[in-house]
User: Fold this.
Amino acid sequence: MESSRMVVIGGGAAGMVCAIAAARSGAKVLLLEKMERPGRKILITGKGRCNITNTKPWAEFSSHINPNKKFLKHSFHAFSNTDTIAFFESLGLQCKVERGDRVFPVSGKSSSVVDVLVKEMDRLKVIQNYNTSVSGFLFNGSAISGVITSKGVFDCAAVVVATGGLSYPATGSQGDGYRMAREAGHSITPLFPSLTALMPAGYNGDAKGLTLKNIALDLFVGNDHVQHETGDIDFTNNGIEGPLGFRVSRKAVKAMENGNRCFLSIDLKPAVGHKELQERVKREIIDFRGNSLFRFLSGYMPSQIIKSFLSDNNYPLLIPDGEKREDFANKLCNALKSWKIEIVSYTSYERAVVTAGGVCLDEVFPKTMKSRLCDNLFFAGEVLDLDGDTGGYNLQIAFSTGYKAGVEAAHLTKKWISGE
Ligand SMILES: Cc1cc2nc3c(=O)[nH]c(=O)nc-3n(C[C@H](O)[C@H](O)[C@H](O)COP(=O)(O)OP(=O)(O)OC[C@H]3O[C@@H](n4cnc5c(N)ncnc54)[C@H](O)[C@@H]3O)c2cc1C
Assistant:
């Protein structure tokens, strides 16, 4: 048994960068990973291509961080998005910037991200114990003296919990870190899935595979307007996903968890003003040959969603005759500009990209990632109550907090050894 080492729990994005930063700072590092190999979640990121980070400057980057961007500021500046790119390029992983300032490895393979991290840990002689699940701690006063695992107890001078959240549990992220944090006296803010599919009322999957491009989306909780976004949504078996769907999912899921009703309002023609659209609909409906509303609407939206559009708006299938047509056209135009859909459920952790909520940020020093309650305990990554939008923000949270926790835990370990 050695007490001169620091222990990192979890070989994900945060844990591996943490172990590397600590070893580079001169600490002896033991990384414990419950799965048979590290970085299982990294492998599935960015649809297998791994969106490593986002190059937006902090002012813009931080607007994609929830619920407390200020907490991330220190660690982001210690290991920023540009540091992330330089770090990976120094390990031999060339990076490229794509649409939306998103950064990917040139290899196009997330496995190459895991490979360079493991290679660097090997080079720095980080001891990596896989198939080793941590179940709890031994305490000596207000410090952790040992880490209890499926392979026995390991002494430690400092511990970093980087066990991720609850999403995609098959990757090893099963919420164990929340239990460890509670054991050390920490509180966990309410957990809920984020960046996840939203299920509209009455949806039967018939629009699966459809993308609606350049639409405007508004989220209402009860009667309150809470979010406005523009861009694309995807329809899948699970409902509404894609960049916009994911972006509004955080507030929508939280509201539903709190027992509130949620509605999306879709503007199918955001580039056309209300008046202009009204004139176009009126003109075209008057000239329209036949009275099938379904056929008329196929000039305005993809056929897969017309049935839902009609039933959500209580429309008859036939266009009325004569003067009633003009009135009808006005109503139709309103519905095209604000098609209201009730969201009745959402996809849970099995397919949510991140877990929102986590270790309460008030109980962690933002400058060091050290616990305010336990002398030698640190946190990094998704286990914290920090999450971001899609676009490389979540991995950057893991890298920045992992780096900071690694450097600071290494300093503490060295102090511990020298008896300061
Ligand atoms: C499908 C999908 C796609 C994504 N794509 C992107 C993307 O392109 N860009 C982006 O920025 N973000 C993306 N994310 C989010 C991002 O992957 C995570 O936020 C990030 O990986 C979190 O890193 P982490 O190290 O904190 O946790 P994790 O990556 O979850 O790692 C935690 C590790 O701890 C281990 N562990 C857990 N409990 C124990 C225990 N008791 N003992 C020992 N080990 C334990 C786990 O096995 C795991 O290896 C995606 C997520 C998903 C699910």
